[in-house]
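A.,

Following up on our hallway conversation. Structure tokens first:
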């Protein structure tokens, strides 16, 4: 009790010193030293109280975070893929753009319908009038986004936002980027597969585990790997050849041909007269069956402006004996 009384007296002196020092909240160093000398752990209590703060205090000090703006005041439409069958478009039209159209079209503007015109631009360089086909979707005047059913996977699409007038004219306001919907199932395109000899594979894999060729463990491991690779019970899941169950000894061999190349990303490429889709970097890969005989694979590329073209024809001759 005597110890607590002393603490109360010291705290009373400290509070009186604070009031006389223009109501400052600092504890005089001399008083603080006296407390820490007389009361063990008093300094730890002061530090502990100053260590924590309430989150509301931090929020008030820094202010509430600002919300994202509803509009960015720009003319823009963005098209994106949801899945092989559906795409999604969102857009914004500046007020000044609509005012300009209202002044130009006058009464026709009030009668016009808001339209999304969806173009199928698969395997072409779209110039606004050469789409394979298109269809219109009437939308609400206040709409700023829309999901579109393309009714088919593996195609390229572009969307225009505009006004359809009563006389059938379509006034373009915004044009989107071009997107390509993926296949619904596994792709028929196969990239190159590189193979290494079994002995090299064993050495590389063994080095990764610290199993050198000269070590006893390494030799035993190599024998184990070689036995596993050559074991008739282990087959590749990707191989089209399956062992005939009714035979004790069998062998089958077949061949495939992989054609790959690259050109300008906006070029039009055909293989054997059929158009193909390029990757964004202009590369392409095709996989063909290779029957016996002579095969000529004609690959033709035409520049985007139709002023230049290049034709390369690999000739492959397969002879099975």
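Then the amino acids I'd put at each of the 321 positions:
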């Amino acid at each position: 009790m005597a110890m607590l009384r002393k603490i109360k007296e010291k705290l009373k002196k400290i509070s009186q010193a604070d009031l006389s020092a223009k109501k400052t909240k600092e504890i005089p160093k001399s008083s603080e030293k006296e407390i820490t000398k007389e009361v063990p752990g008093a300094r730890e209590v002061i530090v502990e109280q100053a260590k924590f703060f309430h989150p509301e205090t931090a929020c008030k000090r820094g202010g509430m975070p600002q919300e994202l703006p509803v509009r960015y005041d720009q003319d823009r439409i963005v098209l994106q893929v949801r899945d092989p069958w559906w795409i999604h478009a969102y857009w914004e039209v500046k007020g000044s753009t609509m005012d300009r159209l209202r002044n130009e079209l006058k009464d026709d503007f009030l009668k016009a319908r808001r339209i999304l015109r969806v173009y199928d631009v698969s395997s072409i360089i779209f110039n606004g009038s050469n789409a394979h086909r298109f269809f219109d979707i009437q939308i609400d005047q206040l709409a700023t986004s829309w999901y579109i059913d393309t009714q088919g996977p593996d195609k390229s699409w572009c969307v225009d936002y505009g006004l359809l007038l009563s006389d059938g004219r379509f006034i373009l306001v915004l044009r989107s980027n071009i997107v390509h919907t993926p296949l619904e199932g596994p792709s028929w395109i196969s990239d190159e597969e590189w193979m290494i000899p079994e002995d090299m594979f064993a050495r590389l894999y063994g080095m990764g585990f610290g199993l050198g060729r000269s070590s006893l463990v390494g030799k035993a491991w190599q024998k184990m790997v070689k036995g596993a690779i050559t074991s008739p019970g282990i087959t590749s899941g990707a191989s089209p050849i399956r062992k005939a169950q009714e035979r004790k000894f069998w062998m089958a061999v077949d061949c495939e041909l992989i054609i790959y190349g690259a050109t300008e990303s906006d070029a039009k490429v055909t293989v054997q007269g059929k158009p193909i889709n390029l990757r964004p970097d202009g590369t392409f890969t095709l996989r063909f069956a290779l029957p016996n005989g002579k095969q000529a694979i004609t690959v033709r590329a035409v520049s985007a402006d139709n002023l230049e073209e290049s034709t390369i024809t690999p000739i492959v001759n397969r002879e099975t004996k």
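DSSP finds eight helices and 16 strands in the chain. Curious whether your intuition agrees with the design.

B.
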